[in-house]
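To whoever picks this up:

The parser on our side crashed when reading a file containing two proteins. I've narrowed it down to the boundary between the first structure block and the second sequence. Both blocks are reproduced below exactly, byte for byte. First block:
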Amino acid sequence: FHEHGHLIDDMAKNISHDDKFQKLLNDDYRAYMTSYGKSNNLKTFDKVQSAISKDLNSMRKHSAVSDILEGVSEGNIRGVAGHGADYWKKNSDALSSEAFAHMYEAQFDKTRYSEMQKYFPNALKYFENKLEEAVK
């Protein structure tokens, strides 16, 4: 389903390449970081990012959010799966493109969808609205 997400994005003329989508991914990331730091009494980004990295330990459950978090954190969060820091630096649209494909994939998997809601609730809602518009 992930690669089908890329195909749909390509066929829809890269609808993932959207400043608002990118902003929502970043906003959701910052909100999760803040919430996580407060609830775990962690005072620095380094400590929060390290703890989140350790939490992302199940390929089945976390591969999609792990990849997106690696991209949005510029490689500072490294969970169970990711493209590697260089991948995100080479293409400014990589984050939104991968997030689109992962969110599409999550539409068909309860576990991945639940994780996507946990980490990227606003970006996921925006993605779903955008996808609905694209198929009209």
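<<boundary where parser fails>>
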Amino acid sequence: MEKIVKIYLKAFIGKNLGDDLFIDIITKRYPKEKFLIDDRAKYLNNENLIFYKKSKFNKLLGKILNICSCSKINYETIVSKTCDLSVMIGGSMFIEGSSKYIENLKEPLFIIGSNFGPYKTEKFLKKNEKIFSFAYDVCFRDKKSFDLFKNLSNVRYSTDIVFSYKNPAIKVTEDKKVVISVIDCDFKAKELGNNYREDYENKIVEFIEFFNSKNYEVILMSFCEAQGDEIAINRIMKKTKVNVSKFYYTGDIEKAINIIASSSIVVGTRFHANILGLLYHKTIIPISYSNKTDNILKDLDFKGKILDIKNIKNFDVFSLSDKDLKYKISIDKQIEQANVHFEKLDKYIDSKGVKNE
């Protein structure tokens, strides 16, 4: 009798469109398996998700275990032991100062789809090198992260997992519409090393006025309420007299992606706004607030305009040419490469349980 494999799934949970796409992709790739995940993800309706709740008692137990143990143990690591394996899936999961527990999760451990950093100290680098060395498989999403750990035989890299997203219900059109994904610089101030809110939001207003002058419909898009996207959008809308629309992601992945798929241009501050724009063959104008954006665009050999949020006040939006607004690249190769992340996991699950073809 074939066995259903139970997988402990560690991911960022917070109604963030990019991170929710990771969960959606992996659960639909293995529809016959069961994924155990924190019940904060209950807003996702994937049928093979099983939710566990961290009660006050469980949190207290985790603290006691962590204090009493010589190594990092919390309630999450105990829960993972009820599964057959663990998968950590996500993008910026290894940032110094905010890195998550992954020590002592149920083995074998698969780490897929992430980039490494930003980091500042050699100690943080060495600590994670040791953790990665014990993993069954580590597959980064950019070459720069891979190069830091390429001495480990179990470390690989590909491109972003979201390039593998498929949904026949998505309607792709080329409406004269621009989607601008917005972040809250106040929330990102620690990561940015400074606060560029005024310069950034004033430049978004300039983008609105520029595209309005060319008769585009403009939609300001929030990817994550918890990280302040909606707050930033409200501030920006008060600064412009142009009539703009807004879209707030609240957990409906298909609805959100249809907004991007029906546009012709994406001005992407959010990393996955750019990835989704490329996936649906749109012109993208990235606003980079992190080297994760720069690194993957370099891997893609992207030659279009890229704005650095730290120097954004020096960019003249009205200097954008028709050529800039029509620049596109093929990502057929990346669509195929994105599935490479799952190669080792495919083989392991197929050897232990139900075939998921």
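After patching the parser it read the second block fine. The mean pLDDT is 92. The CA atoms of residues 286 and 306 lie 5 Å apart.
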